[in-house]
Amino acid sequence: xxxxxxxxxxxxxxxxxxxxxxxxxxxxxxxxxxxxxxxxxxxxxxxxxxxxxxxxxxxxxxxxxxxxxxxxxxxxxxxxxxxxxxxxxxxxxxxxxxxxxxxxxxxxxxxxxxxxxxxxxxxxxxxxxxxxxxxxxxxxxxxxxxxxxxxxxxxxxxxxxxxxxxxxxxxxxxxxxxx
Length: 179
Description:
Helix content: over 70%
Shape: elongated
Low-confidence stretches: none
Largest sheet: none
Number of strands: 0
Strand content: under 5%
Number of helices: 9
Distance between the termini: 51 Å
């Protein structure tokens, strides 16, 4: 994305985040972004393209956020992931996953489904690298998605319980290696 696309995609992300994916019309999206209809359509030629732009912007923003400050794979990095997720959930007021919201509102869009699948796949791969053990990727992914899904009800307890499970997973793997 070029700078103009990023700026528009950021605005689209804000509008979709606050209003959902089903409700805002294209004129409402245009007004929320603060550009002309012509400019909006130049960069995002359909409503689906606008959703995809917002998803791509969010994808890049979230991956940059969770990668920031990770110095070395292992337990500390895996725990940091959940500290960062907790921070993200506080900022987003515990709302459900942006990607899953987009897919739920557009279940017939193969492009949105592919974008969500790619986002989740990149998270899964990153979690394997982050932990230093590809075998931990699925468990970290499940914990990450679980915290995201239940944070509105459980708050920080979900984050702390996930971190506790991460520590148990690393401890069990360490004991298995040395037994």
